[in-house]
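To assess whether the prediction recovers the assembly geometry, we first specified each molecular entity separately, as shown.
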Amino acid sequence: MILPSVSGGGGSAPPPPTQVTVPQSGGALGVAWQRGNALTLFPTRFPPLDRSAGGGAAGSSGGQTQPLTLVSWERSLFEPVFRKLINESAQIFIQLQRGVAPGCRDVGRDFYLQISRQYRSVIRDCQELLDGAGADPNTMAVDGTGDTPSVAQSELLYKLELIWNLVEVLVIETRPVSKNGIILPQLVQWCCLHFPEADQKARHVLTENPEQPEMHAHFWDALLLFLIQGRTEQAQKLLRLHSDFGNTEAFGSLDELIRKMPRYSPQLMMSSVDFDFRFKHWQKEVRSRLDEGDFASSHELHRLALVLSGSEEALSEMADKCETWYQWMIGKLLFTQPDVKSYDLSYHAQQAINKFGGLSGMTSLDSILLAVMESDIAQVINELSSTLDNHWFPAHLLDLLYHTDPSAFETNPEDAIAAANACGSLREYLILEYGTCLMSHRSLWQVGALYMDHCPTQGKYRLELLLERIPLDTETKANKIMAMANERGMYSIVGSTCRVMGMQALREKRIGSAMAWALRSQDAQFTTFLADQLLLQYCEEGSFTSADLLDHLGSSMVLSDRLTFLAKYREFHRLCSEEQDFKAAASLLHSLMWSRMAPKYFWVTLLIDALPFVSCQDEVLLSSEQTYELLHCLQEISKDESLPKKQKLLLEEHEPQIRLELSRNLAIALMEEGDEQAITLAR
Amino acid sequence: MYHCETLESHHKDLVHDVSFNWYGNRLATCSSDQSVKIWEWNTDQQSWDCSASWKAHSGSVWKVNWAHPEFGNLIATCSFDRTAAVWEEMPGDSFLLSGTGAPPPSSHGNPNLRTEGDAPAQSHWVKKVTMVDSRTSVTDVKFAPKILGLILATCSADGTLRIYEASDVMNLTNWTLQHEIHTKLPSSSDDATTKGGKVFIYEYHEPSRRWENIETLTSVSDPVHDMAFSPNVGRSFSILGITSKELKIVTLKPKNRDALLSDNPNISERTPFESKYEVKLAGSFNDHKSTVWRICWNFTATILATSGDDGNVRLWKCNYKDNWHCVATLKGDGQSASIRNHPNMTLLKDQSFNNSGMGLNKANANTNANASSFTSGMWK
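The predicted structure of the complete assembly is given in tokenized form:
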């Protein structure tokens, strides 16, 4: 993440395409997309040509080919150090969306300010983390520039916070109150916060020359910097440390002027006109004292007084002492136009930039700050997006601004609704980009999904596309994805996830597990296939691998006929082995076959299963009618040409015995039933 | 910032196609050396490992394409040997157990990569079916979107498009040739001088159970090398990218959505000349300043990648005013050296398509299956 120096351009034309050079020989490059912001380039030839046909020339590359290049971007956020930034900003984002959700109490400026400050504090936290990492000798730079990557990134975060703070001051804090409100106090405060140079210089002066501070090279600079940051108390304190203070009239005079300087404060409930009157009166006094030669004795004092008087010349000279154009501009405005309105800021900013060498010498940070001062939010986002590697910053910032005042999106909106719509579209675009980027990451995808929920137009579709491409490495992950999809009514993803998991289990020969997934997806075809697999497995091995699952199918067994049969067949086994209810077991066996619920290939097995029941000596378990019907089934199956070979062989082996036992049972059953009939009749 | 890493393919001849699977964690490459290789992303070592490599055809393998994982681990390949094939991955030892299907023709991995312990398990890819209907080189192969089932489209050098369907998704050895479409213009020959449209759009017509030519794009008359429908992302229209002498982006918006939403009987009452789509040229770009050969969408349909004769790969995005523009060019540095730091690629304003929330209808998605297939001037 770096802020390259690009001059601020017009916002209308699309930016020129980024040039990327990849390690590849020249020549044709093929391309294939991966998931997320990643693609693969491969050297190839267009149009494709088969060498064997094209004259049989051997490979020109001498049997070896160029490597593939895998290119990816927007990866900087995936560094572990940004994990906290991502998670905490997501929480703030959600908090904001909840706050503005329809039905919530009307939120005011304070709410947005609080959100804005939370975002800034997250940025500062991350900056501290980076500074901590930078101090760690283990992460020393390897690029030889001396700067560790974390130093550069920490610097970038500092700049981003600077931008956010200015936006907060000029747009979030000021704008909703009144567009014509006085903004300079906030600007001055912003400047103080980010430019501690005056304090540093004062500290140097005091520690290095405590006796005669005025001898220190930075004494007057520090004093001037305090003044142009409007910090009159500090300026007075420093001035009083001068050895000549008290001895010379001039010092007392300047001290008094500084003390008297009118300061605008919203708390004072002072009207703009009233303040203007008092300020002009004060400057008149400064000028008259200058004219009277109060400060003629000291060149330095004279210069400071000139600054106080708002002298163009003195203020212009002062530019050398300022690091940046905005610092100078704010200082200058403090003494020339303290009641500057936000719509005038743009003019002053342009002037300041010209003073500092014009736009061409500006970095993108400068042009972004300029755009903020011009209240050109669209341009701010434009510059940010073309400068930063990812969309974290513009997405969160614009989201907040959109909720604060969507019509502020364009400087001079002819149509407030159109401006708000454009702002909404851009907001959604940025959030989609940011969320999409997170969703391509192994573990951040769940955070990314949260953002999609707050994109009214495309969010749902995008989330659906992204969710179904999350690799299903583990069952836990699959369950998470299904829970998310269920919550959002994306049932096709639920089904698809189950089927993929089922196929995977099947490939690994875990048929029971595959069956569980198939049942969850309610896929009848797949369930039938798996039930068949289980039955075949039973035919081979003579036992069930997934008995537990089959015993607890409940109502889901009706999903497929084959599954119902499988469950019933399993019940038959339980009746025999656990409950020893042979009568019921025999009836069930009969009904499974006679109702034709059993697949044909399984009939042979069922008939063999029936053998012990019909050869039972103690009790008649199957009635004559049932036995007759089983004989019918035997007849049918033995004439069936489509029976698998294996089953056919099995049948050939057992058929005589089955036929014999069935006939015998029929005879016994008939006799017994005859007896019963006779007894009934006799009564 | 761009991050680059290289992967030695160890193919003995030119690579013609590279394709990622659904999840982006596996990669298939195919080459003029007649082989196909499968690569797995190794999360622990952060590297791509070759897990299978085999001779798939007896001619150059032009394309390789993955099926949706719902159908298992399947790829389709097509070749100069006039066949297309579907391959399924068998778990490690399965072909020894199952006894069905012959072991893969040659499934030896790269010996260099097969070190002890940490090497990925060699997987076995079994040929499930060979499509032998074409009498000329099969130039492209693509699975349909999964919503349509397990369907495969192929096209051949003679301009014939074939659509196959697996009769039973659990038994991949049975594929039936469902449709055969001859896209050649009656008067056309292989030279590019043929007048008239070169892009035909076919749609499955339920009542007649046929694919019907519903649209001929008159705006494209130069030979077309590749084309691709954008994935369905909830837009109310389809976007088609076409590459010929230049890149063209076309949108197709259904004129009467009600008629398309269901299999409305009214459709059959339409006169054949009445177009069902409002076709608009969204952009025409000659940034490559030469022939554009390939086109490829990312799966969120937000970025389009093209490769041209100038050796560049360009990435395209659409802004919120529906204007497409190039956002990045990727170019070989002429030597395989280290990478310098690149500025980042991002976009400013974008996609704010006002969606009605309607997904693409079925018939429309059908055409998707055959993207890059309907050109009369596919590479000669």
